[in-house]
Design brief:
Blueprint: H1 11-15, H2 38-54, E1 59-63, H3 80-95, E2 102-107, H4 111-117, H5 121-126, E3 132-135, H6 144-151, E4 157-163, H7 174-186, E5 193-195, H8 207-211, H9 217-220, E6 225-228, E7 250-251, E8 257-264, H10 268-271, E9 275-283, E10 289-294, E11 297-299, E12 303-304, E13 308-312, E14 321-331, E15 341-350
Parallel strand pairs: 1-2, 2-3, 3-4, 4-5
Antiparallel strand pairs: 6-15, 7-15, 8-14, 9-13, 9-15, 10-11, 10-14, 12-13
């Protein structure tokens, strides 16, 4: 029992331990259901049937990111056809309702992660099993363009997930929400999907006004934004195949360059921000000598605190699309303790 709450356990799991993933695997929860078991699929399908018998819904979302794995870890790709057959059954049932019922599925943010988790999204789209694919759960960098290419010739819409606290940024700031929304629109998203937003809470009331901005790329232009490199949170058993493209956090070693991609979905040359700077958060920073380059152009450090380095940028230095920050530890200070780690890299564009 956790503090203040009682841990609940489904009766069917108690009666049928053979339906579960079980112990001894490198990732996943032991009590996760194994969709290779026919009774598990029958149970989940029965829930969908019951929902549509009781309520006249217009659509259904199947959230496959709560949570993988759906098969014994390591067997997901070979069992992908089982999940596809399950979706075929769901799609057929919804089509029998006598009117269009949209089906959305939330999946991993990269095609490779989808493959590793047993999500054959190419077949799902080709056969029209889903109407909307939602990408990611807390990840900032997503392969929106790759999914859009895969969806060509189909009617499937691609909606990246704009999370309420992406990649350890908790809660999401106004500037970050704008920057991520701009990135997804730039990549060709058909819409945005919000998860874990709580504008009803007093300390997050600012999110109400954001809801009026992020859905319209034109409403974002000319407003303060932040564009950040994605960073991996602590290892989580439930998300073994996510954050695949993350470079951060990165330990710096003398003489070795670290290349950090940062996507910028706003044309800063046209936007002409009044302030543009690069902020680098570091752990165990001392009087170390560091070298910086942005898209191959050397940068000069402006300010340094025990945890933050600030570098000024000009709009002409920042590309619309992918940018690459290069950080090199030239020499470590003699008195330094612990591993010097680059924990975050952010571009802040201010207006007014």
């Amino acid at each position: 029992m956790q503090a203040g709450c009682v841990q609940e356990y489904a009766t069917f799991k108690d009666k049928h331990p053979e339906w579960q993933i079980g112990q001894g695997h490198p990732y996943g929860q032991p009590t996760s259901l194994n969709f290779a078991v026919p009774e598990v699929r029958a149970l989940k399908f029965a829930v969908i049937q019951e929902l549509f018998e009781k309520y006249d819904f217009d659509g259904l979302e199947i959230d496959f990111l709560r949570s993988p794995p759906f098969f014994i870890p390591g067997t997901e790709p070979e069992n992908a056809g089982i999940l596809t057959d399950f979706l075929r059954e769901v799609r057929e049932h919804l089509d029998q309702r006598g009117r269009p019922i949209e089906l959305a599925a939330r999946v991993d943010e990269t095609l490779e992660a989808c493959r590793l988790d047993g999500f054959d999204v190419a077949t799902w789209m080709k056969e029209g099993l889903v109407d909307v694919l939602i990408l990611g759960s807390g990840v900032m960098d997503m392969e929106v363009e790759a999914f859009k290419r895969l969806a060509q010739g189909t009617a499937v819409l691609i909606y990246p997930c704009l999370y309420g606290w992406p990649s350890k940024y908790m809660p999401i700031s106004v500037e970050m929400a704008r920057g991520l929304a701009a990135n997804y629109w730039y990549q060709g998203a058909d819409g945005l999907y919000l998860f874990n937003w709580f504008p009803n809470e007093p300390d997050k009331a600012y999110q109400i006004s954001l809801l009026k901005e992020i859905g319209d790329p034109n409403a974002l232009r000319g407003k303060p934004m932040m564009f950040a490199a994605d960073r991996r949170p602590r290892p989580m058993r439930e998300y073994p195949h996510n954050w695949m493209h993350c470079v951060l956090p990165a330990q710096l070693s003398e003489g070795k360059a670290v290349h950090v991609p940062i996507l910028v979905g706003d044309d800063l040359s046209a936007a002409s921000p009044s302030r543009l700077e690069l902020r680098l958060a570091c752990a165990n920073l001392a009087a170390d000598r560091l070298g910086f380059a942005f898209n191959g152009q050397p940068l000069a450090e402006q300010k340094r605190s025990p945890t933050l380095i600030t570098v000024s940028l000009t709009p002409s230095q920042v590309r619309l699309g992918k940018n690459v920050l290069t950080v090199t530890l030239v020499s470590r200070a003699p008195q330094a303790q612990g591993a010097l780690t680059l924990e975050a890299a952010e571009i802040h564009a201010g207006h007014g």
